[in-house]
Amino acid sequence: MKGQNKLFIAIIIALLVGVGIGGVVHVKYPENAEPFAKNIKLLGTVFIRLVQMIIAPLVFTTLVVGIAKMSDIKMIGRVGTKAMLWFISASLVSLFIGLILVNWLEPGHVTKLPIQDVSSADELLKSSKSFSMEDFVKHMIPKSLFEAFATNEVLQIVIFAVMFGVALANLGEEYSKPVVKLFDIIAHAILKMVGYIMWFAPLGVLGAIAAVVATNGFEIFKVYAIYLRDFFFAIGVLWLVLLLVGYFILGNRLFDLLKRIKEPLLIAFSTTSSEAVFPKLVEELEKFGCNSRVVSFILPLGYSFNLDGSMMYMTFASIFIAQIYGIEMTLGQQITMLLVLMLTSKGIAGVPRASLVIIVATCSMFGIPPEGIALILPIDHFCDMGRSMTNVLGNTLATSAVSKWEGQLTEPLDKI
């Protein structure tokens, strides 16, 4: 937690320094604003390329390990099926809410930024004109895993990883165990790298903000205020939907459940970590009356496959970056993006700031300048508060709902 706080403070300092430098250039040296922005933006480029560097191996190893270990579902059978149906439904609803609200509220249309990467714009224009099912299939099915790795084709990597993970799961533990263990070690090593790479984020923020302020002035801060306002409104809508579904399934017991998890929700909000409250959540759900076997199976699975707040944020942030660069996406492209996010987000769930890694990959795939992610980094900590708290709520409701469906929801243990 101390490391996260230091990183947050470093990003805020970098933001302020970037604003100061960019403001001085914009006001006193306007004739030098463009070359200055071009050079200092290289700091952001370094950070973005470091993130892009780990996307392919991270998606591949974590997804293979996750699916190979999911042979447990066969043992639990019916419970696992119901859990996965909840997770998929909740993920799709969360993604659609983000997509609908970002298109309705249009937070990125407050200001327009010039597109620096002309090749990205050309690629987007070509894909929007010739977008077809054939193009989608070619993007989805790899002809070579190594080509997919070399070009960072995340969706192709996901397809191969899913098939490989399923094959491992059905191979028998004697053969699969050493392979899964190797990939698990590689995945943990890459996760360690994510922590190191995030320390380059302050430089990326400084470069991106200084460049934006130097060329666009202080109007960019109006964007931050509107972005946070619209994002938390969207989170509120998602909470309303989740609680209505929870009430439909649990009835008045929903209010007792909310009282019990108020502390985990607050911890997740203040620490931006849903993992930090996992032990407390297990304890409270068992006291609430959920079957301990159901809790011990569904809650860990939910932490990998049921991140409702993060899912909503991915569509919201991706379309926001497109809006801020003045890139109009067709409905077909946005629906395709939603389905891509549905698949790719399952690959690196639980990774620190996983949402940002996925957004960078998705922006690159759809021709949206990936450097746009640096614009929302300074306020990502505040968005992460809302995301983490929503993830905890979603997993709590999923565990309670499946317990109820299985007839395993008893009276609260502390009231018996």
What structural keywords apply?
416 residues; mainly alpha; Proton glutamate symport protein; 79% helix; 0% strand; globular; Na+/H+-dicarboxylate symporter; Na:dicarbo_symporter_sf; transport
Question: Can you walk me through this structure?
Answer:
The protein has 416 residues and is mostly helical. It has a single domain, classed as Orthogonal Bundle (Proton glutamate symport protein), CATH 1.10.3860. It has helices spanning 2-28, 33-68, 72-76, 78-105, 118-130, 133-140, 145-150, 154-169, 173-197, 201-216, 220-250, 253-260, 262-271, 278-288, 292-305, 308-324, 331-344, 354-365, 373-405. The protein is globular. The two termini are 37 Å apart. The relative contact order is 0.18.
